[in-house]
Request: fold
Amino acid sequence: MVLKLNDATFRPFFVQLVDQEGPVQKKPERAITFYRFLASFFDKFKSIVTTYSSYIIDHAAKQLSQLTSPSASSSLRSAVLSALQKTFQHDQDGFWQAPSHYGVIMPPLLTLLTIEAADDVSTDVIPTITDLAAASASSLDNHREMNAVLLRYMRDEHAHTRLATVLCEQQLTKRLGEEWLGLLPEMLPFISELREDDDEIVERETQRWISSVEEILGEDLEGMLQ
Reply:
């Protein structure tokens, strides 16, 4: 149907669709359908429709803020993240780099690193965060803002949050390379703490992260971590 409509006809329809979705629904089924449509929409039309994301930013941010609850629907979380991931991936005009857009979606997105559903974090949460960082690749300020949240989570009292954060840092390092490692001086004190973490898995994954950093930079971090 969308293919048969021009922008002047479709845009008012899209706005009405978002308005009808309205506040976050108590029943997730409707929202799941809505976000699955958005994922297909953004994936099909790619950068042509990235600006349509402006209509769903606030709604998506509200959804994300509620999806940290233990009772939250895993299917809804996956649907919301899939839609966001598609719009991040196809952004060619710096839409998600703009602070007014990035600043709304980044904080609630990163809070999903605190959930205990490890599979959801690995499969959905971390890849979406990585795509947002890649969409904002030319903004050091945005990356620093994101990393500031990650550093805070590295000292979270829950081991699963510290682990999720280290795994996220691994993926950001792998995806963005030296561009992300421009923030390494800020990370070093936290890395030093994490490699002596009380949790063995956190400690092991931190060492794996250190190894990937050393491989990219071509130098040993040991001296810096003393």
User: Anything to note?
Assistant: The chain has a mean pLDDT of 94. The longest helix spans residues 28-45.
